[in-house]
Write a structure and sequence with these properties.
Length: 112
């Protein structure tokens, strides 16, 4: 469990660090944007490992349902019917998912 928390923390810190570094070196802002995709991938992997250890946790199941919904809506918006308002919602959804999965991981009590 500690490894999951550490991995999640590192995944969150990297884009934040690069974003702050972008104040001094503007190219870092591009790296920060790309690293958010890596953060999302790492958080999905962390979520899978968390789910393997806590299959009874309803919140992690909701997280995966929200991730599936996000990617489905993204695909729909890009390939089927573009909706400008949906694009703005999808733009901020990864941040909400990041906060949600982090809350799940950090609030879980250790099994004895």
């Amino acid at each position: 469990m500690e490894n999951l928390k550490l991995t999640n923390s590192i995944a969150i810190i990297i884009p934040l660090f690069l974003g702050v570094l972008g104040i001094v070196e503007p190219i870092s802002l591009y790296f920060a944007a790309y690293s958010t995709m890596l953060t999302g991938l790492l958080q999905i992997i962390v979520g899978i490992f968390f789910w393997k250890n806590h299959k009874e946790n309803i919140y992690i199941k909701i997280y995966f349902l929200l991730v599936l919904t996000f990617f489905s809506l993204w695909y729909y918006n890009v390939n089927v019917n573009y909706i400008d308002e949906l694009t703005w919602i999808l733009l901020f959804t990864p941040l909400a998912l990041c906060i949600y999965v982090s809350t799940i991981i950090y609030s879980q009590k250790e099994k004895p």
